[in-house]
Amino acid sequence: MTYSTVRPHARRVLWLSAGAAALALAACSPPTAKKAETTAPSATTPAAAPAADKFVMPKVPAGDYKLDPAHANLEFKVSHLGFSHYTARFTDFDAKLKFDPANPSASSVEATIDPKSLTLPNPPAGFKDELTGKAWLDAGQYPAITFRSTKVEVTGANTAKVTGDFTLHGVTKPVVLDATFNGGYAGHPMDPHARIGFSAHGTFNRSEFGIGFGVPAPGTTMGVSDAVDVQIEAEFSGPPLADAKAPAATPAH
Q1: What is the three-class DSSP state of 50?
Q2: Whose CA, among 17, 42, 74, 193, lies 20 to 30 Å from 241?
Q3: d(CA 56, CA 32)
């Protein structure tokens, strides 16, 4: 794709990515495990194996968790002319999670993204600077994109909806992420801290944040879609393993 063909639309992508990224950072708390329905086997029928879709909540501690940036990804997609889904991401972001596995709805998350960390696929010279400049993201005036959760609603054995205040380019509006708790552990000899992981997905309309330039006219796809699709993968590190041994003292020389 040449600069002339991308430039009119890729600009909108930045806006989208900005919103997407912030959403993305907002990882949610895992819901309470679903009780598995069981039926007593008959004398002639062998007991059935546990259903593969029955989620078992791991034994992980409640407490403060921080994002592991080496195991996190925040990307967004927008439709370009209806021909493809332009995909980009942010690489500099952070998140803090207060997590309670016994009461997921009491959990909360805060995330911050540096808009200057926008990463584009094969951008032409100067294109990123244009997108982060005053005409678009205006990263100098608005150096952070943020998300602060206001509600966690359990929707399944390991799923939840996370609602939060999303701030982009000086505008704050509520957004919702559909999150999945992928599992975790209380600690490991090679990783003596609790670790949990999430996947999250959400969409929002950029025009609601005052970024309506290039949105296709009704009934057409000529432009860059209003809808921004956000995909998040994130792992968090939490409280230390209860029985972790302290490092041996270095003998004096």
Answers
A1: coil
A2: 74
A3: 9
**Phi and psi at residue 158, in whole multiples of 5°?**
-140, 30
The pTM of the full predicted model, rounded to 2 decimals, is 0.75
HSE-CB at 206 with a 13 A cutoff on CA atoms is: 32
> Which residue ranges make up each domain of the chain?
3-30+58-240
Q: Which two tokens stand for residue 122?
A: 């094969």
CATH fold of 3-30+58-240 reads Lipocalin (2.40.128)
Find tokens 């989208």 and name the residue.
16
How far apart are alpha carbons 213 and 156 in whole angstroms? Answer: 38
Cα separation, 226 vs 166, in Å, equals 17
The pLDDT confidence band at residue 209, using thresholds 50, 70 and 90, is: confident
- Tell me the pairing of strands 108-113 and 145-154: antiparallel
Q: Could you report how far apart the first and last alpha carbons of the chain are, in Å?
A: 64
How does pLDDT run across 112-160, given as a tens digit for each residue? 999 999 999 999 999 899 878 777 778 888 899 999 999 999 999 899 9
SS3 15: helix
Question: Among 182, 242, 191, which Cα is nearest to 61's?
Answer: 242
DSSP 117: G
CA distances from 48 to 19, 37, 40, 45, 51 (A): 46, 12, 9, 9, 8
User: What is the C-alpha separation between 197 and 110, in angstroms, rounded?
Assistant: 16
